[in-house]
């Protein structure tokens, strides 16, 4: 609300204005007198090491992620290493900022986006970005972390070379910049349409810029990055008229507008005689402002994948005025509302880690739809979402494991939108399958498995049914039987993927088997008994790649010969395993751990194998071809998803106290509240979801079986504020550094003997109380009937 409007309404709404004034940002940049859970979030966690998160402004599931980019461009640096390091555009180790762009991935192992980089400057107007070790050669600036801050929905940094304070905030589809200039007779703002996070080469296919009036520009670009021919449109508005503007076509020549637009031009009104435009593959725009120290300069940017008109509509609808403080407060309020799903009693460090993990988990899949309901589909056409909000960024190989199960608890109202978005992808796809790893209307075909089926089945079985179940089930069948996808015909013929037909064959077979289990579970629930029987049979395919002679999962060719070069510790590119080795992937039978225990030789040998996994050192030479195998404890690699369920497998062998040890070991040694506090890529919230579940004291080893395997809680108390005003509270009595073992467990006052809980027991609300001890209770959870269920165990014999 503007100051003028406040004065006009002061006499009638004085108390409201006073409370609003107190809540809004004051000169010291405090946003609110009410400290919600966003106060515990530190967006810098994961920006160091290989966490690949960004610190910039974003709202829950927002389409815009407005954040600084610090990509290094120094000679002598391995470009590929730098690309990997800067997957999110920003890395905490860097000391210069190249600008602020509007779209970013959070925690991925691959890079793209970085749409529309904007950078303010004073002095000489620079066109090139410069290098990290010589920022003065371009528009880049040095900065210090001591003059940088971030909180949910807000980022601020002081640019040392220009004496400019930059502040950023965002809505779902628009970003808002505020630049406070402290020196200079003229300021410049560059809008670099050549910049991208994909790599250091220009990947722009085509772009254009239109100057609409002396405050407004419309722009477009299409890029060939990870996603091919990805389109994005921009609407850009300045809070005051620019005194001059340059449209720079690096493939042609520089054009100076030189007063072509007068201050009489009305904002957002196209005047034919005043419109200036340029198009090409290498465009930059430089806006110039006289007397910059007179007042802060604000820049609004709306984005759309559909059209310039939609970008402008998104901007005008979501940021109606120039009140930066109000927009920032709105962003904070949105985060406080989302983060209120948790109420945590623990140390400040633990609370920072937990709430930051939830913050990262609630960023994606993100909205990919304009305010008018339009979005660009995977077929490249413009569609209108009917009765759902379209979402994008499905990193399914990572996120089906824990992130999507977490969202069924924390954000069940948004899950149907995500599933309907996947179904729209299926209907629009020329291949007729569900998404694999998709973003911004593009399928990248990255990673393995058809894990959308797990997300859909898990949600359906949990009672989330605001989607067409019959259509969803048909999409699941089509994906699981598609002849064009990763050797499915061979998998169905041989019962495994032959290594001479496809690389990563062992991992693909094992992940297909789990996916088939989730299809069988949904078929069973829908009364499709014959289909369920078929897919339960397919789910047992893991047996076909277990070599009893060596005791490991091992590659096999189409003739039936075992891999002669087998090394259980080796992780090779284009080898039998996906970003892992046989030590790790042998344990990937989440739906039938009891069956795996039998293969390995019983409880004792299974526990010995688990212990070996955690104790046997893994040589760097064995994994050097994979840059993202990280967070090692022996052969266990917490920085990569195939290991995430393994610490919970002791429960299936009747030794849950060993799980309690391992979970504490992982959390104490591989996570912190520092910038390098993630053991590896956050992978669009999967790492964070693992941390959240493990802090609660349980984990979804096999999404779709409706159970969570109990580990051990890591905080004094945590309450889940669920739908329908229900609350599920986890208490850890006497928990301490030494008291890491469960002495006994009570669910709603009744002693719980089994080492797992059911989804319904959480969603119905109640209280789970752990009594902790410094010595393990080796009897609890030991009997077979108290262990978590498995497909081939006695609990499921009725099938």
TrEMBL record:
Entry keyword Hydrolase: yes
GO biological process, one term: carbohydrate metabolic process
Domain Glycosyl hydrolase family: 310-773
GO molecular function, one term: carbohydrate binding
An example Gene Ontology CC term for this record: cytosol
Signal peptide: 1-27
One Pfam family per UniProt: Glyco_hydro_92N
Residue ranges of the region described as Disordered: 779-799
Keywords from the UniProt entry: Hydrolase, Signal
Glycosyl hydrolase family 92 N-terminal domain segment(s): 40-304
Protein name as annotated: Glycoside hydrolase family 92 protein
Organism: Aliikangiella coralliicola
């Amino acid at each position: 609300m503007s100051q003028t409007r406040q004065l006009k309404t002061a006499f009638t709404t004085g108390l409201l204005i006073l409370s609003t004034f107190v809540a809004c940002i004051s000169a010291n940049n405090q946003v609110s007198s009410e400290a919600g859970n966003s106060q515990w979030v530190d967006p810098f966690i994961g920006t160091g090491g290989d966490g690949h998160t960004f610190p910039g402004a974003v709202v829950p599931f927002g389409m815009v992620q407005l954040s600084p980019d610090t990509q290094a461009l120094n000679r002598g640096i391995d470009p590929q290493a730098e690309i990997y390091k800067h997957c999110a555009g920003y890395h905490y180790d860097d000391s210069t900022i190249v600008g602020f762009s509007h779209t970013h991935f959070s925690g991925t192992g691959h890079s793209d986006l970085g749409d529309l980089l904007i950078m303010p400057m004073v002095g000489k107007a620079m066109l090139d970005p410069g290098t990290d070790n010589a920022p003065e050669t371009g528009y880049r600036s040095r900065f210090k972390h001591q003059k940088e801050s971030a909180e949910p929905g807000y980022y601020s940094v002081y640019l040392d070379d220009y004496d400019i304070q930059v502040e950023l905030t965002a809505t779902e589809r628009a970003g808002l910049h505020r630049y406070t200039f402290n020196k200079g007779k003229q300021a410049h703002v560059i809008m670099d349409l050549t910049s991208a996070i994909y790599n250091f080469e220009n990947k722009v296919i085509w772009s254009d810029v239109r100057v609409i009036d002396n405050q407004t520009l419309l722009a477009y670009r299409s890029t060939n990055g990870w996603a091919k021919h990805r389109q994005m449109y921009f609407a850009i508005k300045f809070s005051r008229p620019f005194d001059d503007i340059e449209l720079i076509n690096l493939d042609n020549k520089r054009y100076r507008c030189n007063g072509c637009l007068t201050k009489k031009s009305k904002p957002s009104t196209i005047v034919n005689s005043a419109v200036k435009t340029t198009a090409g593959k290498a465009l930059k725009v430089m806006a110039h402002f006289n007397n910059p120290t007179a007042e802060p300069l604000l820049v609004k940017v709306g984005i759309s994948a559909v059209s310039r008109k939609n970008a402008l509509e998104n901007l005008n609808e979501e940021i109606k005025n120039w009140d930066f403080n109000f927009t920032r407060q709105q962003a904070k309020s949105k985060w406080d509302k989302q983060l209120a799903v948790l109420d945590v009693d623990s140390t400040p460090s633990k609370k920072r880690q937990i709430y930051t993990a939830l913050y990262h988990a609630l960023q994606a899949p993100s909205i990919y739809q304009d305010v008018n309901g339009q979005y660009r589909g995977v077929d490249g056409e413009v569609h209108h979402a009917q009765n759902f909000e379209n979402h994008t960024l499905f990193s399914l190989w990572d996120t089906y494991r824990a992130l999507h199960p977490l969202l069924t608890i924390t954000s069940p109202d948004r899950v149907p939108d995500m599933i309907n978005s996947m179904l729209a992808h299926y209907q629009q796809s020329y291949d007729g399958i569900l998404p694999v790893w998709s973003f911004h209307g593009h399928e990248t075909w990255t990673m393995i498995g058809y894990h959308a089926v797990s997300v859909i089945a898990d949600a359906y079985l949990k009672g989330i049914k605001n989607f067409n179940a019959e259509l969803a089930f048909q999409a699941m069948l089509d994906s699981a039987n598609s002849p064009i996808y990763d050797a499915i015909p061979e998998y169905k013929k041989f019962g495994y993927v032959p290594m001479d037909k496809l690389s990563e064959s062992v991992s693909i077979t094992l992940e297909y088997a789990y996916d088939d289990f989730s299809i069988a579970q949904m078929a069973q629930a829908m009364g499709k008994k014959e289909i369920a029987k078929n897919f339960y049979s397919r789910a047992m395919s893991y047996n076909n790649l277990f070599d009893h002679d060596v005791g490991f999962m091992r590659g096999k060719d189409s003739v039936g010969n075992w891999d002669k070069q087998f090394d259980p510790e080796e992780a090779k590119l284009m080898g039998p395993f996906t970003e892992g080795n046989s030590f790790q992937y042998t344990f990937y039978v989440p739906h039938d751990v009891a069956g795996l225990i039998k293969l390995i030789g019983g409880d004792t040998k299974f526990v010995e194998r688990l212990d070996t996994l955690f104790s046997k050192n893994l040589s760097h030479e064995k994994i050097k071809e994979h840059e993202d195998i990280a967070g090692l404890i022996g052969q266990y690699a917490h920085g990569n998803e195939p290991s995430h369920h393994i610490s919970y497998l002791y429960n299936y062998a009747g030794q849950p106290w060993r799980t309690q040890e391992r979970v504490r070991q992982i959390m104490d040694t591989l996570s912190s509240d520092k910038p390098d506090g993630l053991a590896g890529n956050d992978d669009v919230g999967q790492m964070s979801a693992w941390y959240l579940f493990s802090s609660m004291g349980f984990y979804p080893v096999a999404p779709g079986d409706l159970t969570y395997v109990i580990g051990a809680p890591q905080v004094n108390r945590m309450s889940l504020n669920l739908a329908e005003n229900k609350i599920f509270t986890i208490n850890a009595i006497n928990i301490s550094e030494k008291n890491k073992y469960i002495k006994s467990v009570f669910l709603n006052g009744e002693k719980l003997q089994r080492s797992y809980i059911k989804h319904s027991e959480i969603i119905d609300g109640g209280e789970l109380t752990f009594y902790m001890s410094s010595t393990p209770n080796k009897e609890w959870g030991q009997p077979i009937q108290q262990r978590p269920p498995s497909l081939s165990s006695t609990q499921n014999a009725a099938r």
